[in-house]
Hints:
By secondary structure, the chain is of the alpha/beta class. It has one domain: Rossmann fold (3-Layer(aba) Sandwich), CATH 3.40.50.300. The chain has nine helices and eight strands. The termini are close together.
Amino acid sequence: MKTIRIAIDGPSGAGKSTLAKRIARELGIIYLDTGAMYRAVALKAIRLGIDTRDRENVSRLMDDIDISVEYHDGTQRIYLDGEDVSSAIRTNEVSMGASNVSAFPEVRAKLVALQQEIARNNPVVMDGRDIGTKVLPDAGLKIFLTASVEERARRRFLELKEKGLLDKTFDELVAEIEERDRNDSTREHSPLKKAEDAVEIDSTGKSIDELVAMIMDMVRKRF
């Protein structure tokens, strides 16, 4: 079981986290939401009044920031400087800020090292933008999960509405997702990119149960 390393990459809103959590639960191993770590960096910058596009000042934060991951009853919790920020990092402002700070090599260097350390010590399902290409290039199974922009905006709309955090129209969410796609795909360092040996899956119109069944079949064949 310790040899299991599963990387799930793809654009924002494709369903990576939901799928990765289910796969990890099915296998009884750790799920690591790498995006939550970048959100924590963005949250600290926002709280300090730092523009998340300001590389110099955001990078300085990495010298004095403590981000840790803990698991309570199988659920991942993200701590920022000792504070549980698992809920605070789920706003639209933090989401866009995470896309900005994740472009900075100083931020990525620190967080990738932490992610790799966790994977060295545990069988893991990890999702993000560059897991298969950068963080876990030797993962035994790599998935590149996609979905149409409209489908991703619809999911985000429903998620925010359910949590009582909806502060955007559907069209505004579409525009934000398109902007984030551009940011993630064109950034200089570790851009969103499908690994050469990744299996691409379009989740548009597919239920989570269908996707889990597909990937569990791959897991049985690979491991």
